[in-house]
Structure formats: structure tokens, C-alpha cells
Write a structure and sequence with these properties.
Blueprint: H1 29-37, E1 45-49, H2 56-67, E2 70-73, H3 82-85, E3 90-94, H4 103-115, E4 119-124, H5 136-144, E5 147-149, H6 155-168, H7 175-182, H8 189-206, H9 212-218
Helix pairs in contact: 1-2, 6-8
């Protein structure tokens, strides 16, 4: 008879978005340099583009703190809340996606940023030129916004990311576990997050420490 599977409690954990906790690497150095050089920007608006979990929100939070910026999800931007969005003179617009956006509001926002000499930082998973846009003037405005692409992590950054994500959950990740995961997980920011979350949840469910043995149980190769 199979014993019922014990559920792990989803305990809250906090991911640090402090400047000293950002992990620099070849794929994000240009984006980090852009944030660090504010307000000496080539334009009043800028875009950070990269895959999920690349650190866009972390860099955005660093910039928002320095600039005193308000933070707004791009899907929540509307013409009615434009004055409020720029009330502090700076806005972080998070996750501008190909869908779920108000094109007219975005067009007016870019115009207001220029007219009021405000600052705008946009995060997106795609470069602005890749966004399908129906309003020609908005397409022109987006093409003119300087954009920095953030690349997937190299080996050194991925190793550091695994350790940091584990530390955010109060987990001590041994070098043997890191090496094991590096060879088996999806080599991306999102893959690292999923792997650490699975390890944490399974360790809590089984009331076992995070170890190479536990990782081997969770991340078996097809021929293992």
C-alpha cells in the first residue's frame, strides 16, 4: 500500500535585490553599466531586454532606488494613470510584453517623459524592435530608445546564481551539489530558479538536508 505523499509547506523566502547582491557577468555587464551610470544616460528612456530570470527586475530595483522611481507593471499602464506614474520624475515599467499592453498609453508615456524631462526604464523579454506595434509613431519612438540586451549566463555566473538562490532560501549548497546541477539542469536563469525551488521543496517534504544524493534523485538523466 502506497503511503500518502507528504506536502511541503510553501514557506516564504525573500530574494535580495540589493546592489551588492547583483551577480555580474559577461552577459549582463552592459546592462549593469547602464544602471550604474544613471543619470548620465544617452537619452531619458532605456530598455533592459533579456530572458526570464536574467536579472532585469534586480537591476530595475537598483535603479528605482537610486532614481526614486515608481514601479509599475507594463500591463497596468493606462492613460488614466500616466500623471501618477511619473509623479516622482522617474518610472520603472516592468515586463513590457508583445501582448497585454496599452499602445496609446505607452506612446503618451514616452512623450511625457521627454516633455517633462523625466526618466523611464523599461524591462522586457524582447528588444523593442521585436515588439509588434500597430501605432506607427509608437514604433518610431521605441526604435529610438536605447536598449541593452542581457544574455544567458556563462558557467561562472550560473554557478554563482545557484549558490545565491540557495542562500536566499537559507540553504547551504555544497560544491558537489553545484557541480552536479550544472551538468543536468537547463542552463538558464529560469532553469536555476526551478532547480533550487525543487530542491528546497523536496528537502522540506522529506526533512532531509540538500545534498548531492537528493539532487541525484530529483535530476536523473534519462539513461541513469
Amino acid at each position: 500500500m502506497n503511503r500518502p505523499r507528504q506536502l511541503a509547506l510553501a514557506l516564504p523566502h525573500t530574494e535580495s535585490f540589493a546592489r551588492e547582491d547583483f551577480l555580474p557577468g559577461p552577459g549582463n555587464e552592459a546592462a549593469l553599466a547602464l544602471v550604474d551610470r544613471w543619470p548620465d544616460w544617452p537619452a531619458r528612456a532605456a530598455v533592459l531586454a533579456g530572458p526570464e530570470g536574467a536579472g532585469k527586475s534586480h537591476l530595475g530595483a537598483i535603479w528605482a532606488q537610486a532614481a526614486g522611481a515608481r514601479i509599475l507593471a507594463a500591463r497596468g499602464l493606462g492613460e488614466a494613470n500616466l500623471p501618477e506614474a511619473l509623479a516622482t520624475g522617474a518610472l520603472l515599467l516592468e515586463d513590457l510584453a508583445p501582448d497585454e499592453r496599452d499602445e496609446r498609453a505607452l506612446f503618451h508615456l514616452l512623450n511625457l517623459v521627454r516633455e517633462h524631462q523625466a526618466y523611464l526604464l523599461i524591462t522586457s523579454r524582447v528588444m523593442p524592435v521585436s515588439l509588434p506595434v500597430r501605432i506607427p509613431d509608437l514604433a518610431s519612438r521605441l526604435r529610438a530608445v536605447p536598449a541593452v540586451a542581457m544574455a544567458p549566463p556563462d558557467d561562472a555566473l550560473l554557478r554563482s546564481l545557484l549558490v545565491k538562490l540557495a542562500a536566499d532560501r537559507q540553504l547551504a549548497l555544497g560544491e558537489d551539489v553545484v557541480t552536479f546541477l550544472m551538468a543536468r539542469i537547463e542552463r538558464s536563469f529560469a532553469g536555476a530558479r526551478v532547480a533550487i525551488a525543487r530542491l528546497d521543496e523536496e528537502a522540506m517534504r522529506l526533512k532531509r538536508p540538500v545534498s548531492r544524493a537528493l539532487a541525484a534523485e530529483l535530476f536523473r538523466t534519462p539513461d541513469a
